[in-house]
Write a structure and sequence with these properties.
This protein has eleven helices and nine strands. It is α/β, with parallel strands linked by helices. Helix 3 links the parallel strand 1 (58-63) and strand 2. The structure holds phosphoric acid mono(formamide)ester. The site of phosphoric acid mono(formamide)ester has 9 residues, from helix 3.
């Protein structure tokens, strides 16, 4: 399969002609109604007032990159919905013999799998699968390269809304390796859609994208300049696997300028929320004590993942 970049440029959409979700590719074309539909369902799943079953469905997790949270929470979400899950082993697959992604998907579809949760190192891989689909399978993007991680952004926005009421009224900072972060890209789409009061992007110049969308961002190059008056601080992982060399002088120096400490947090309002999509590099993005600080919502993000991923799966299957 070729043309990942072309598929991205084509702005291929997650919605069908009736504006119903049939894939989850990215958030570039989401409006607030789309978000609130997912959030409403997630609330019902959390308070157990609604539990539909999709027991005739087979779902495959295809993870070409490692994962703890996304892989496991998609599996749990599917199991709650009565779906049978195949955790496809990329390592033991015929990828090593040259089979490409589209052929792998088509062969799994021929075995009866119709829903695919895909994590792939190539930006645009899920979009290309949808663009070239010969069969009516559904693709959920569980992270493609540096491009998008839409389910994570949905989880983060849901966690914020649960605790703050409305996202639109908030002053938000995203801090860390923004250049390589698919989570940051998806969050920027989400916060632009919610028209937040202010959005600050904070990173070393070497980890900040040069070209940014038209939303009026504030750019900062030290966390100390990006926390006053903020309601939410989202800290991102340094993506060591995508950094070749030289982006930061040292992890210690990075931590001293961009790391969150409880000392820093305790100077802020007790209502400030600190989020991190995980996995956390302790001593690089934040110190140990931050995880225990009342302002940390990092494990609440993880708890919300199952309900949000149930909502995504259920919405897609209802729109068949
Ligand atoms: N947030 C996130 O994508 O974590 P995993 O890589 O563990 O899935």
């Amino acid at each position: 399969m070729v043309g990942y970049r072309k598929a991205l440029k084509s702005q291929i959409t997650s919605f069908n002609q009736k504006n119903k979700l049939i894939h989850l590719l990215d958030l570039h074309d989401w409006n607030q109604d789309h978000f609130h539909t997912i959030f409403k369902l997630a609330k019902q799943f959390k308070n157990k007032s609604f539990l539909p079953k999709h027991d005739a469905i087979l779902m495959a997790n295809l993870f070409y990159e490692h994962s703890t949270r996304t892989l496991t929470s998609f599996e749990i979400a599917a199991l709650y919905l009565g779906i049978n899950v195949v955790n496809f082993s990329v390592l033991n697959s015929s990828k090593s013999k040259g089979e490409n992604l589209q052929d792998t998907i088509e062969n799994l579809y021929a075995m009866g799998i119709s829903l695919f949760v895909l994590r792939h190192p190539r930006s645009g891989a899920p979009h290309s699968l949808v663009q070239h689909a010969r069969f009516p399978y559904h693709i959920i993007n569980a992270g493609d390269g540096e491009h998008a991680h839409p389910s994570q952004a949905l989880i983060d926005c849901f966690t914020i809304e649960q605790n703050k009421g409305s996202i639109s009224n908030l002053h938000i900072t995203i801090c860390g390796d923004i250049l390589h972060s698919r989570v940051a890209r998806s969050l920027i789409h989400a916060f632009t859609c919610f028209n937040v009061k202010s959005l600050t992007l904070c990173a070393p110049p070497s980890l900040m994208p040069i070209k940014l969308p038209s939303f009026p961002f504030t750019i900062e190059h030290a966390l100390a300049n990006a926390i006053d008056g903020r309601d939410v601080i989202i800290n991102l992982r340094i993506q060591r696997e995508r950094i070749t060399h030289g982006a930061i002088p040292s992890t210690l120096e990075y931590f001293n300028t961009f790391g969150i400490t409880s000392e820093l947090l305790n100077k802020l309002s007790p209502t400030v929320m600190v989020l991190h999509p995980g996995p956390v590099n302790r001593g690089v993005e934040l110190d140990d004590s931050v995880l225990k600080n009342q302002r940390s919502f990092i494990l609440q993000q993880v708890s919300n993942a199952t309900a949000i991923r149930m909502s995504i799966i259920h919405s897609i299957l209802c729109n068949e």
